[in-house]
Each structure stands twice: as C-alpha cells, then as structure tokens.
Design a protein that fits this description.
alpha/beta; eight-stranded parallel β-barrel; 27 helices; 22% strand; globular
Length: 924
C-alpha cells in the first residue's frame, strides 16, 4: 500500500515493490517489509526462466499477502503471439477471479482485453512499453493504465516534470530504484530475438549485453554493453522528492537474500527520510525487526551486485554506467594474497570471515580495454581474461578449512593474519591477487528463517468474493434472508431463506450471527473479500435486481431485531456453498467466452484482398532520396512502374540532427517535400521512437514546419508519439493520417485492432515474428483494423540506448569534439560482427548483416499484404547498395551482397549480407 500520511513538510513516502521469482523470495519480501511484490506465472512474463508461480500457488499465497497488507502484482509483460491469444484469455479470467492487485502489461492487446472483459483487473504499464516522457504517461493513462513503470533512463528532473504534469490521483508513476540494468531501453531490445529467436520482449532474453566484445575498428575490448547495477539507496531523497509513488526493485531471477537485504535497506532509508517508521501496520512481526545501517551496508555488499551506479538519476552522463571489466558479483574485499604454500593461501583479513563463506580470487593484473588508459598488457591476454570471467572460470569456492598460528579455526576477524585451504585441483593464485567474500554463511542462515512461512502462516488455497446478506420482513409474518455472491459488481449466485418473523425474547444476535456465518466457506475455499449485512424494507426487498446489487435500498432504520435459529442460517450457508464453486467457475468461463467471441467476431473470415504492391521507403538522410531518384530513372524501373506493376506509395522521412546539414525547420521541410514530390510519392514524417526532453524543442519545430508545408501523414513508434503530435502539429486542414512502426507492437490482431482505434491506418508487422504466426495473424486480420505493412528490409536496431560505449572506453565522456560520434565495429566470441552507431548521444547497435525478407514477398502477398516497406536507417548506404536492395524488393528476390567491381572502385559501399531473423524459425 502507498503510505499516504503526509509529513508536516508534505513529504510523500512511496511504497517498496519487491521482486518474487519464487516462493522463498515471496516470503523474504513479506517478512522484510515490502509493501508489494511483483511476480510472474509460468508463461506470459518477461522472466520466463525464473521459478515463477502457478495459479494454484497464487490461490494459496494471495490470502496470506492480503492478511498482511502486501499487494501482489502479476506480470503479463510480454508480447503475445497470435496463436497464444486463446490461452491469454483464460489466464486473464483466472487472474481476475484470483483478485490479484494489478497486472503489469506490455502488449496493448492484454490491456485491451482486460479493460473490456475483465474490468476487475487493475492495469499497470510495464517498463517494457518504453514510456519515457510525460506524453507517454498521458497516453498510457488514456489507455486505462492506473500506473506507469517508467524507463530506467529518466533523470530526477524528468520524474519531477512528469509528476508536476500529472498528479497522482490521475495516474501513479513507478521508478526503478535498484537492480540490474539493461543496456537498451527496456522493450526496445531486439538483440537476443534477432540472433537466436529468444526475444527479450517475450521473456527469453539471452543476455547478449553481458558478453565480452572486441572492438575491430580501433583498439579496445571488454564488456562493452554490460551495465553496472542500479543502486539509489544513497540518493533515495531524489526519487522521493521527485514524487514517485512506487520504488521498484529489479530481480525476479535473484535469491531470497537479495530480496530481503535490499528491501530492508530501502525501508531503513525511507524511515530516515520520513523521520518515522514507514512500515504498514498489518506487516508481520518479522518485518519489524530493525537492523542498523552499518550491518545493512555489509549485507548489501554480500548480496548479488555488480559495480554500482545511480545511472542517470543525477543527470545524463554524470558517471560511467558501463562496467567493462566485470559482468557479475564480486562481493566485499577480504584482502590480498601474501603467499601461497601448497594449497594454503596466506593473507591479512580486511573483514570477518568464517567457514562456509563463499570466496572468490581475482587476478591482480588490470585488463586491457582501450588506449590510452590501459597500457602494458597485450590485447590477447586481456581478451582471454575477459573470456574466463564470462565463462565463470574465475576461482570461486566455499571456505572449508582455515587456520591461524598453527591451529584450525572456524572464524576470524578483520586484522588477523590467517591461511585458508584451496579446493583440491584449484589453480593456485599469485601474490598480490585479491580475495573477495561473495557469500556469508551467517547471513544465509538468517535469510533461510524468513524465506518460508512463519507461525500461523500456512498457505491455504482460497477464492475471494463479495458477499451481501439482506434481511427483510415479508407479508404473512415471514422474514427473508438472502445471500448474494458477487464478483466485480456482477451477481454470480443468490439464495434465499424464508422463516417465520419472530422477535427475540432477549438481545438480538442476528447481525453478529450473519457476519459470523457468511465470512468463509471452508468446504469450497471461498472467503468474503467484503461482507455487507443490510436490513431492507419490505417494499425494496424484491426491487434489488442483479443489475443493481449495490443499490442503496437499506431500511431507513436498520432492523435486525429478529430471531433466526443459527441452524437455519447454516442451512442457507450450506445451500450457497453447494453451488458456490460452480457458480464462480461459470462466471469466469462466461467472461472468457465473451472475450473469445469478440475476437472471433472481429476477425476477417478470409485473407485480405491482394492489390498492386505499394512500396514505402524509409530513410534518415537526404542523400537516400537522391539515390531513390536515380533508381527511378533506370529504364527497366520506369517501365515496370509505368505498367502499374508496383506503386511507390510513400517516402517515410525520419529527421535526425546528425545527418542534416541544416537544422532550420522551414528549409528542411521545403527540401524534403520538394524531393518527395519529384519522386511522385507521398511524404510521411516519422517521430523518433525515443524522444527525450532535450530532443523535444527541435523536433517540435521540425514537425510544425512539415505540417505547415502540407504534410498530414506521420509515423509513430512509441505511445508517447500520439500526444506529442497532438501538441506539435495542432489542427490540420486534412485529417491526421497515422502509420505505426514495428516498435508500436502488433504481434497479434487484438493489438492491431487497438492501434487502429487510436487512428493508425497502416500497421507495421513485427520483424521478430515467425512465418507460422504471421500466416495465422494475417489470415484472420481484423476487418476494422488498418492495413498491415510488411517490412522487407531493415538494419534492425538491436539496442537503442542512452548509454555510450565510447564513454566507457574513455572512462568518461570524451566530448563530441573527440568522439566525433564515430561508429565502432565490434565482434563477439562467436565471430559475429556488429556496429555501434552514435547518433549524437544515443547509441544504436545493429548487425553487420541486415534483416531482409525481400525474397519472401510472395509469402506476404499470398496472405493478403499489399503494403511493403524498405528501410535505410542509421547505416550509411551507397547509391549502388540502395539500388540493389530496392531492386530485390521490387522483384521479390534475395538481396545480393556486394557491389560491382566498377562501383567498388568508385568507393561505393557494398550491400550487406542478410538474414531472415525468426521468419524460418519459431519465435520463443
């Protein structure tokens, strides 16, 4: 729960939201003082490889959480394939029946179905939705989200601006305070999915950002994309003062020790900021056991963490956020190796240790990353050391034997000189190597006690329902007692008892008896979420219908002065209990069937009509328009176009500061409009997927200038773009015509329908999807949805990031004058090559090989697709490469890598090799 009692200075204390990857973590969070937990089911969640929970697990754990006032949020924060929609509906129906506190959602389809058919589910927008500005929060609110989990990349200033723009009674904002960081904006990572079908947008991330890479274009190597871990415990006042409602701790794949230690640390810091105990009153006794800050800091050091960073909280590039050297947990420093004698290592302790602690020994030599700051070690040796770290070959072991002054000892304190024994077969370290303590046996023992149910906390599977018991006198001296069972405002069961109307001889106990009897049906595991016992007048008793179960029809003066034998009340309770389970199941099934019927009714009954192929070309450079113009002058191209074999429908232009010789908005708009008109095509202008506060002023001028030049077609790739366009272009003479980019995900038809309802007339299909699911989707494309568009060629942005590898290699931002926004060519351990482009201060990583389905155009045509798009973004393309790719698209042939010898001699870039991503595989 949010702790809303304001302090005298108006300070609002946010709730602590903890991760729970399994039961142990759930109980650790409960007993450590978390206000809420977020967890995932066995499917449809972004941590598919965590332990996760079944619906039966939740039936057991939810009552316990509610008893102690801890919310349970369920993550359905993945993109859903078309073939999975029926299963999704069943999950939504079950979660609404379970009365979970909220769903955390990425796919707009999940939100749409929940909002329409399962309104009892509270919706939170996942960070996977990539909301990163005030505009995005406004759109999310309009889509029915009650809370928005913001991108990790936001600064405290960004957060304050969003809170100022939208008060918390309109929408809550949630910010990450601790845990692992992704290199890319969450929801905009396509590296894992493009490489081996394990989409990060579907919970199957292969953690390609944690691998070592070698820079080929200049000296350098390291974990170029491996982020340090977020830790804001020392800067928590910035988040609290920014007005966030919830502090989110990342880590559903981490253990109970991590959950408990991090929750306790942030609770202690909140208590300090508030000047009081911020723990909710219903919390279990174990959560009230306080620890001093020094002990918590020590425990944090022994809990999984990489090098720490506050990321961009204090400002952009305030610190280096990438750890080139170490992608995993080191722990706390124990000391340096003084001597190694056989298998015994001697050192002077810098911290206390005991038997069964976890130790790690790191070599003392510095790794080679990039000149000039790391000299003196050959790149090959540094590379091998990096690979050893990635493969886990650094020496780690559990301490079994230790001695001092010739005696074996179980414990030792800081300052002592001791020797400990290496495991048999371990490679001996060298003098000067550094020993770290990664785990504490004592801490582990403490955590084990709180990571399981405590006394009186035995999980019992229960269902919740709203119970209303009505009492009213009837004619002929009779009394009616009716029990009405409801779920989310709808009556699912109603049973009545008619008894003689008898006044008691002693004090009436009827109201207390009703509250006692109708709280729990243990035989079917149903408990009253709410229990209303009301007295009705004779006239209104029969007027309360299913449509108005909560109508205010109570008697003016409540009258419970009746005698009803408890045996009769038990009869009524039993009558309800006999039907209750089936009634709840039937209500759940009815809702699920309504959702399925809706999807069936909106689906087309036959494939889309095939028309003349319409092509769009998307680019970010004016030079590409020149190359497109020269391509259209080729005789065979002119002939096929004149014969109506294809149509150049649109040019989609995405303005980027670094590729433009002038930033003057009017000149830019006039130039682009003129060039596109000369091509005989229509112009559509793309809003960049990521628009930060520092981007808005220039983009606003550009978009307004394009609108003034008569442009009314725009492309959106993020939810925030809808609101930004409304603010930037205002009222237009022609209606706004919107198309979506692939980052406005439409992996299924419910999502496509939802975007269409927001005014999108052309919907880009997912470039992560596979042929089987694409066929299923297209063959049932919603009749009322915008036209599907297939992207035939693209340099997939594997990462879109604010974090800069050049900054890491230079150990700080070298400034634009030094870096020149140059691109890096890098290689992973499998020999795969990628390019890291720096578009001003954003990093875009793309493959040496491009994504291409030009040879699969006939597949899309067979399933009714007539709109196709070819993209030339980020990578510099020569005129000859552009011609080659366009020709392949028009002909439906494979892009031929390379260029003619004559063109290469003129300095032309080759057309790259290509891949089909997951088209011929199965998207996991």
């Amino acid at each position: 729960m949010n702790i809303e009692e304001a302090q005298p200075d108006g300070l609002f204390i946010p709730e602590i939201l903890a991760p729970a990857g399994g039961r142990e973590q759930f109980f650790a969070a409960l007993h450590s003082g978390a206000d809420a937990v977020f967890l995932g089911l066995k499917k449809f969640n972004a941590r598919a490889r965590a332990e996760n929970f079944s619906t039966e697990d939740l039936r057991e754990l939810l009552p316990l959480a509610k008893k102690h006032g801890m919310k349970v949020l369920v993550t359905l924060n993945v993109l859903v394939k078309q073939c999975e929609l029926p299963d999704l509906v069943g999950v939504l129906a079950t979660l609404e029946d379970l009365e979970v506190d909220a769903l955390i959602v990425q796919d707009i389809a999940v939100a749409s179905l929940a909002r329409r058919f399962f309104p009892g589910l509270r919706l939170h927008a996942s960070t996977q939705l990539a909301v990163h500005n005030l505009a995005g929060v406004k759109v999310a609110r309009a889509l029915g989200f009650r809370r928005v989990v913001l991108a990790r990349e936001l600064t405290a200033q960004d957060l304050r601006g969003i809170r100022k723009g939208l008060p918390r009674d309109e929408v809550e904002i949630e910010a990450f305070c601790h845990g692992s960081l992704c290199y890319s904006y969450s929801g905009l990572c396509f590296f894992s999915g493009a490489q081996d079908s394990r989409s990060g947008n579907r919970g199957e991330c292969a953690y390609t950002c944690r691998k070592p890479y070698k820079v080929l274009s200049e000296p350098g190597q390291g974990f170029l994309f491996s982020m340090r871990d977020l830790d804001t415990v020392d800067d928590l006042d910035a988040l609290v003062n920014a007005g966030v409602d919830t502090l989110k701790i990342e880590g559903r794949k981490k253990d109970a020790q991590y959950v408990s230690t991090v929750v306790k640390s942030y609770r202690a810091k909140l208590d300090m900021l508030a000047g009081r105990d911020t723990l909710r009153p219903e919390a279990p006794a174990a959560a009230r056991e306080k620890e001093n800050l020094a002990d918590l800091e020590r425990d944090m050091g022994l809990t999984f963490h990489r090098e720490r960073t506050s990321f961009f909280l204090k400002g952009r590039y305030h610190e280096n956020v990438i750890d080139l050297d170490n992608p995993t947990h080191k722990g706390i420093r124990v000391g340096e190796v003084l001597k190694v004698d056989d298998r015994w290592v001697r050192l002077v302790l810098e911290c206390d240790i005991e038997r069964f602690d976890g130790l790690r020994i790191d070599p003392s030599h510095a790794l080679y990353h990039a000149k000039p700051q790391h000299l003196g070690e050959a790149p090959l040796e540094g590379r091998k050391a990096l690979e050893k770290k990635y493969e886990g070959e650094v020496l780690q072991f559990s301490l079994r034997e230790m001695r001092a002054r010739g005696r074996r000892i179980p414990t030792a304190v800081a300052g002592e000189q001791v020797e400990f024994e290496l495991p048999e077969g371990a490679t001996a370290p060298r003098a000067g190597d550094v020993v770290f303590k990664t785990r504490s046996a004592a801490l582990r023992a403490r955590i084990e006690k709180i990571s399981k149910p405590g006394a009186n906390e035995k999980p019992v599977p229960l269902r919740f329902a709203d119970i209303r018991v009505e009492v009213a006198p009837l004619p002929q001296s009779l009394l009616a007692v009716r029990c009405r069972v409801s779920k989310h405002g709808h009556t699912v069961l109603s049973e009545e008892l008619i008894v003689p109307a008898v006044r008691p001889k002693r004090a009436a106990t009827l109201e207390d008896d009703l509250r006692s009897q109708f709280t729990l049906w243990g035989n079917v595991g149903v408990v009253a979420k709410t229990l209303d016992v009301v007295s009705l007048s004779m006239a209104t008793f029969t007027e309360v219908t299913e449509a108005t179960p909560g109508v205010n029809s109570e008697a003016t003066v409540p009258d419970f002065h009746w005698f009803v034998p408890r045996s009769k009340l038990k009869e009524l309770k039993n009558a309800v209990g006999m039907k209750l389970g089936e009634a709840l199941d039937a209500a759940m099934a009815q809702k699920a069937q309504a959702a399925l019927s809706h999807m069936a009714a909106s689906a087309g009954s036959s494939p889309l009509q095939i028309g003349t192929p319409r092509f769009s070309v998307k680019c970010d450079r004016l030079e590409t328009l020149e190359a497109l113009h020269s391509f259209l002058q080729e005789p065979e191209v002119q002939q096929s176009r004149a014969q109506g074999e294809w149509i150049l429908d649109e040019v989609v232009f995405e303005p980027k500061r670094m590729f433009l010789s002038t930033l003057d908005a009017t000149s830019l708009a006039a130039s682009v409009v003129g060039k596109v008109e000369a091509l005989g095509a229509r112009l559509r202008v793309a809003v960049p997927t990521v628009v930060r506060a520092w981007d808005e002023a220039l983009l606003k001028r550009w978009m307004a200038a394009f609108a003034a030049a008569g442009v009314h077609r725009f492309e959106v790739g993020n939810v925030g773009a809808f609101a930004l366009l409304d603010a930037w272009v205002g009222a237009l003479p022609s209606p706004l015509d919107l198309a979506s980019d692939f980052t406005l995900y439409a992996l299924n038809n419910e999502a496509a329908q939802s975007w269409s309802e927001l005014g999108v007339s052309k919907i880009a299909l997912s470039i992560e999807s596979d042929a089987r699911d694409l066929a299923l989707q297209l063959d049932s494309w919603p009749r009322a949805a915008g036209r599907p568009q297939a992207i035939l060629y693209k340099d997939t942005p594997l990462f879109i990031a604010e974090s800069c590898s050049l900054t890491a290699l230079h150990n700080g931002c070298p400034s634009a004058e030094v870096c020149g926004y140059r691109s890096l060519e890098v290689e992973n351990e499998e020999g795969e090559r990628f390019l890291v482009a720096h578009e001003n201060c954003k990093s875009v990583v793309y493959g040496k090989d491009a994504f291409s389905l030009t040879q699969e155009r006939s597949f899309f045509a067979a399933h009714g697709v007539s709109d196709f798009r070819i993209d030339f973004l980020t990578r510099p393309y020569s005129e000859s490469a552009i011609h080659s790719i366009l020709r392949a698209g028009l002909l439906g042939e494979k892009v031929v890598a390379g260029a003619s010898a004559q063109m290469l001699a003129k300095g032309a870039h080759e057309a790259p090799n290509t891949h089909t991503a997951n088209f011929h595989r199965t998207l996991l």
